Protein: Phosphoribosyl-AMP cyclohydrolase
Organism: Pseudoponticoccus marisrubri
Amino acid sequence: MAFDPDTLVYDANGLVPCIAQAEGTGEVLMMAWMTADAVRKTLETGRVTYWSRSRQAFWIKGETSGHTQALIDLRVDCDRDCLLAIVRQEGPACHTNRRSCFYTSVTNGDEVELMKPMVD
Amino acid sequence: MAFDPDTLVYDANGLVPCIAQAEGTGEVLMMAWMTADAVRKTLETGRVTYWSRSRQAFWIKGETSGHTQALIDLRVDCDRDCLLAIVRQEGPACHTNRRSCFYTSVTNGDEVELMKPMVD
C-alpha cells in the first residue's frame, strides 16, 4: 500500500511525534515533532526534518550544527499517531552536545547524569 | 538532585509522552502518555503506568492482557518534556499482539509490514 503522510493522525497543532533511534546501536536519541510536510521532506530528501515548535519552521536536523540525521528507515505505529525514524546520527543528537537527549536517569528518587557532552 | 514529577513539562492536557524501550535488545516498543500522577505511580510500583487518553484513566500496562512492563530505568530528556522508560516487556507490547507498535516500515513509498503477531 502506498504511504500517504496525510493518513497519519496529527494532534490539534497538526503535529505527530517522531522518535529518532540510532541504527546499529539502537540508542534512543531524541523525540521531536513533524508536520505532514516535514514527513514528506524527510522521505524526499533522506535527511530527517522536524517542525520546530519554538521557531514555527522546518528544522532540518544538523543543518547548522552539522549533527545530521540520515534516514535509514521510517516506521509508523499501530495507531498511526507516532513515528520512529531509524537514523545514522552524525555526532551528538542533543543540543547539549550529548549523544542522546535522554541522559538523565531517575535512580532511587534522584536525577543521575548518565553521559557527558561529546568532545569534537 | 531529587526527582520531582511536577518539574516535568506537560502539554495543555497535562500529559508527557513516554517511549518504552526493551532492556537488552533496545527495541522501541511503543509510545504513550503519562500524567504527573502516572509518573509517580510508575516509580512507586515499578510497573509502567500510562494515562489512557481514550478512557481518561490510569492504564497499568498489561493489567488485563498480562503483557506487563516492569520498569528498569526511567529517563528524562534535556527539555524535560519527554520520558524514556527502559522496561522488561512481557510478550507483545502492541494491542495487535506484535512485539512492537512500530511494525510498519515506509519503504520506497510503500507501507511494508515488518513483523507478525506473536503466538502465545
Remarks:
- The longest strand of chain B covers residues 69-76.
